[in-house]
Amino acid sequence: MKIAAPYDKKAEIIHNEFESVKYFKIYETENGKVSHSEILATMSGDLEMIIGMICMFEVDALICNNIGKEARTILEDEGVLLYTGFTGNPDSAVKFFMDGKF
Description:
This protein is an alpha/beta fold.
């Protein structure tokens, strides 16, 4: 499973607004644990580019704080599971997710 979180690289937290994110932290998981993670630049704040990147990397789940209606609809139509309302450290949010706590 691949999990993504919009990432504020400077503060090392989940970026507040999905639509203006410049980086994502992508996690690959195996057997209920994170096997690999990396930070990827979106190259723009363009919504279509951001959504295209999520789809290109075959992300299964997105953990974020806020996401607009248009982005939510497109990602849900692509089969991406959305978990919203999260702030703080993305590693902690992914662990919370992997432990089945939301």
